[in-house]
Amino acid sequence: MSIRQEPPAARADAPDSEEITRRRMLIAMVGTLLGIVLSALASTTILTSLPVMMNELGAGQTAYTWVITANLLTTTVSLAIWGKLCDLFSHTRLMFAAIGVFVVASLCAGLSPTAEALIGFRAVQGIGAGGLISVGSVLLADLVSPRERGKYAGVIGGVIGVGTMGGPVLGGFITDGLGWRWNFYLGIPFAVASVILLHRTLNLPSPRGSARIDWAGVVLVTASAGVLMTWVSVAGHMFPWWSWHSVAMVTAALGFAVATIVVERRVFEPLIPLGLLTDPTISRVVITNVSLGVTMLSVPAFMSQYFQISRGMSPSASGSMILAMSASTFVASTVLGQVISRTGRWKPWVIVGSAFLLSATVGLATLTSTTPLVLVGGYLVGVGIAVGTLMSNMQILAQNSAPPDKLGAATALPAFFRQLSGTLAVSVLGAVIAARVTGASGAAGATRDTVPDVAELPEHVRQAVQTLYADIIGDLFLWCIPLAAAAFFATALLPNRPLRTSTAVQQRAETLLPE
Length: 515
Hints:
Blueprint: H1 8-12, H2 15-44, H3 50-57, H4 61-86, H5 91-110, H6 115-143, H7 149-177, H8 188-201, H9 215-234, H10 244-264, H11 280-310, H12 315-343, H13 347-364, H14 373-401, H15 407-439, H16 459-476, H17 481-492, H18 504-512
């Protein structure tokens, strides 16, 4: 590994140089984590402000969903692209490029005059976020071995988990104090700090690869996911769910998906290397990540509506309720990271984490407008423990099983499916809410395509709206139970492989040594 360090011979006689190298590695890790937290904050800080945002911009439930899904769609597709680029080009320069795209898009999103403009800039922001997630994860693999990474799993998982699920807490306070637009400016200081730290510390060798980008795969993956998400967002509003429009869009999405598989099996440098899925560890990690993605994105997105609409809370109070989930994520990730690093035993803990995921999902499916808040908080703590246990460890296991020349793709592949499942889930579940609210009878004021401000509704209407949203959101989590059960069985069947003790840079160097 090259982080502006001294040669091995010099370091053997110079403990001070070794300490300097270690300090630079830690600084580089902080810079990388700052970049990763940017992507997490982008997805979640606006969640508690979305009801306020949509009300101010005069938009409805469809726009509410697309502000989230436009960002998630481009994040998902770009994850695979950035991952492939990591196998070809300098990781440091790619990180700088991702940060640049993210910052410019965030500034423009904060200045958006309409919901349509906001959705467009959120899509561009997602491209940068995809790079931050994918390239940042590869940089961490460059810096620390899978076995040693357990020591930092608390930091890595805590940063991502707290950023993902603690974002609504911060976003709620920002919305109440400064206004929703300031949520988009929040990440700029993190970006500046990340660039400065990485520029001063990292000087990693570039991967040796042929610069062949699978543009056909890019187009087909984007088309397949985009058409499917568009269908679930507009069906039931622009045309009936069961109509020739729906048939045509679903057929097109499936056709693009089949074409993607055909192309990816034949191209020299596939965007999504399907061969990696034959590895029993990576395939089971993908299954677990699908459920994890649905839960991580759906819980903050729709629990914000539950707290604000069904329970009449303010954005900041809503975010505070989700704080329990964020805190448990950090604690679980920190404690288990140290335990796994010392013992090398990871499998029992990921099984426990998936058990928490399943039980918490079952609990959320029982929500009503009168469920005790202490009980709701307990369910959120269970989700947080699951995320803290599984988030970093699933990524480490995929990287631990990948060959050095496919590290970028192996890192991006589980993340791609995690983001894709979460994106589709938010889109599908958001469409279900919109359809059921629009079609509900006897709840005056809840049948139009707008996100209601319950504080402005008459008492009898407010109670009906609160009950309606609580019942719908509770029913949504019933759909997540089978995925959580699949994740539990997938983690139980993971091969119990030992974690490697060399970094990705060292592994690539070893492959270049003569026999």
